[in-house]
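Internal tracking record. Fields below are filled automatically when a chain is submitted to the structure queue. Please do not edit lines marked as system-generated. If the sequence contains nonstandard residues, flag them in the REMARKS field before resubmitting.
Queue: standard
Priority: normal
Entity type: single polypeptide chain
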Amino acid sequence: MALSKIKFFACRNSRYLAEKIAKSYGTELGDASVTQFSDGEFQPAFNESIRGCTVFIIQSTFPPTDNLMELLLMIDAAHRASAYKVIAVIPYFGWARQDRKDRPRVSIGAKLVANLLRAAGVDRIMTMDLHADQIQGFFDIPVDHIYASGIFVPYINSLCIEDLSLAAPDMGGAKRVNAYCQYLNAPMIISHKQRGKANTVDSITAIGDVEGRNIIILDDMIDTAGTITKAADMLIDKGAKSVMAVATHAVLSGNAYENINRSSIQKVIVTDTIPLRAGEDLSKFTVLTVADIFADVINRVYDNREISSRFIF
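SYSTEM-GENERATED OUTPUT FOLLOWS
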């Protein structure tokens, strides 16, 4: 059976990344537009036929909520336009921190988003470094969960850092950091934190040898940067020679840029799943693109080839 024609489209706030993914794949973005109404409502539309096509729609669902709604509307439009398959490429999957009921009478936002995407008509999901792996199980369709380790591990190796140790910013990140340690042949440090409320860290301490080490703190995202900057300052106080941070998703809300720039962190390495905020001091930031890895996985999925060999872990 011949493969259906492939087409790439982007929602507005991820167009910068979608253009790079399409270029890496060897094609161009399809023609789509959004009609904006005066009350804030909007309506996406495909300006070319997608009948019988395998359609990839690229959008990270970072705030505001309009980004998620635009993706849902694009999926619905593609489904109603008789696309053969509709695949949502969501480099940053928002609402992923709401993966369970951690206290009474709260929503499970990640499951709700999964239901909304399925109801809109999506056939497959591609995403990167989910905050909680179990979110894959919220879907009854294939989910390609890509790891940014395929980008970060070669980059860290290229830095040739002596006396390298890798640190988890909290107990929940220990599994991820341990996997990096195996590939980078580096010891692990775990930061133990106590929170009074969400986005606020009351106290933090380190488990592991810190003195005289060059430390990289690894995490899936940086939000307010409160945890990661307090961890960096604490590690320097305990005798670390230097501290860098590596995170897949640069959420960077509130005073995050200011917090990072006045902290002990020498360098922050992130990907382009979320764009950095214009007008901020980015002198400490290095951005690595995820375009090539997504383009390769898209190519493998489209050709019905395996993708497991593309992952480091």
